[in-house]
Fold:
Amino acid sequence: MNATIFFDWVGSLPPVLQAVVVVIAFAVVVAVILLLVDVAPRKGAMYTWIRLAMCLIVPFAVMWFFNSWYWAMGVAVAVGALFFLLDYRSRDGAGYLIQLVAFMAPAILLLLVGLILPSIQTVYASFWNSSGKTFIGLNNYLWIFTQSDGITAVVNTIVWVLIVPIVSTLVGLAYAVFIDRTRGEKIYKILVFMPMAISFVGASIIWRFMYEYRGPQYEQIGLLNQIMVWFGGEPQQWLLNEPWNNLFLIVVLIWVQTGFAMVVLSASIKGVPAELLEAAELDGANAWQRFWSVTVPAIRPALIVVLTTISIASLKVFDIVRTMTAGNYGTSVLANEMYTQFSKFEAGRSAALSVILFILVLPIVIYNARQIKKQREIR
Structure:
């Protein structure tokens, strides 16, 4: 097949040229898709001829790439029928619905295959045993809420979602207020936002070095323990001592998410009308009253977005826990426990944990969507 020849050829190139060829090929595919999306709904003889050319070029390209007449004929029929319907229906200004369906179909198909069907399969699997051959009803869910591992994962997840969004938002808001319009504002914001550019695994490795422990007889390489030694204290096993080790893990996500909160809230604060602040100042309101009575209500939509977004990130946190403690010492959360049970070939329990995680995330997503809808109605 020409596709195999093409990929073999790409594989024979130096790594730098491979990247260039892949980027060019991707750009060509995107350009063709954009051309089809832009041309297909338009009226006129010129666009009709373009559509006709596409009906010939696309099948020939498929035939050359896959070296198969069957693929070429199938694609030709599909593309020709699609463009014919679009062209025929759009002559009299009709056909908007069919155009909408035609161009949303790929996205709907991807959502169906990549999200909806796996979700249904996961819910179905949560009612069966590990082998998937015996229906056990709610036993997997009962195990989660009756065994120490499941209860610990649920409780820790709730602790994460209660602490991380509130603290990250408050700290990000404080940064946004105090850094706003100060000298060196851009530099300060870059420094605060920088952790957001680091992956969770990278951030976890950085903080593992912060919490690193060695015995009192050794030289400390962890920053916190070295500071403890400098002040005459004993080094501590920060990630082993329950329940405080959960708080030390939570600090990592707060550190990462604070930059996101600061950027969003800073942009929202800059959008508060100066007239409102001036009117409040003329009425005798001090700086705190202006902030609490004018600025905060004005940025409420941004606060909701930040809180809900960080809440979802807290509910599905996995990388930090897995990298720093692997869920040991009472630090496991739902996502980590889901992975742990699946690695033990307990697919039913893993599916039940994922369903519980979905149930916890769903209200936040619905609330966020409703708030966005209300803001659109106000505008």
In short: The chain has a mean pLDDT of 82. The two ends are 55 Å apart (CA to CA). Residues 148-179 form the longest helix (32 residues).
